[in-house]
Amino acid sequence: MRGYTASFPRGSAGAGLLLLRLALAAQLLWQGAGAAAAWWQTVLAALLSLMLCAGLLTPVAAALCACYHLMCLDHTGLIGAATAIALVLMGPGAYAADARLFGRRKILM
What we know:
The protein contains 5 helices and no strands. By secondary structure, the protein is mainly α.
């Protein structure tokens, strides 16, 4: 029986998830580095972008990213939140630190 864990697809699906993570990180940096952003918003955006680029704790980082995007009440915030929620639901992919840390293991006896 398979539990509720994200899979780590390889190939074109893994590359697509990598591209999705990088695009979300770029959008977060673009929005977080705005002139009206407070210093803590810029630091939070930079930290979440680094986590997304590396693929480290991706579901947590993407959920926080969705909350961050929802703080901005414009159309780019809604698009960013939808992208982040999609990333939470699909998982990080094989080209992420999460796949290395929490991926499938071969047990040798």
